[in-house]
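BUG: 3D viewer hangs when loading the predicted structure for this chain

Environment: internal workstation, default settings.
Expected: structure renders.
Actual: progress bar stalls at 90%.

Input used:
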Amino acid sequence: MLADTHAQRVLDLACQKGLLRASDLDAIEAPRVVLTRLTAAGLLDKVGRGLYRLPSHSGSEHESLATVATKVPQAVFCLLTALQFHELTTQLPRQIWIAMPRGSHVPRIDYPPIKMVQMTGDVYSEGIETVERDGVALRVYGIAKTVADCFKHRNKIGLDVALEALKDVRAKRRASADDLWRYAKLCRVANVMRPYLEAVE
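Structure tokens produced before the viewer hung:
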């Protein structure tokens, strides 16, 4: 009977969290072998190393972001991934772009593929918005910060992408010129962005 109780508690937790990490079982004092049994019985799906979800839980467009956020809580979605999240790009990034504090190692994740950029101090910590999707808290840079980041990392993603994002944001009034300017200064790209900002005003 004990095993059944564990199984039910694990399933309840999976239902509550959306994505379940093996380490989450410690909180409910359930042995990890329960995950193996539930997966074998078809009651849980294994979606990555140490990551499980209920089969009925249909994968949303944010599922890969939720997977990364669950495994790497300090990651902040940035650049192309943040643009896609805010519906500001037509491009579909092949990788999930994350920002991590300087000195971080690239997280070892089998799937989805990730691309990490290191940021320091305020450039890393400012402009983060926390949004809940599929029961998982996603940390993503806000629109103005994302545009400034795109100019800062234009060598990685292309100046055309940064310009398209800036034009789109101003045309749709998704961020004020003041906010864009504040993050341009924070990211030390004010001189790069100034002519483009003036052109779209």
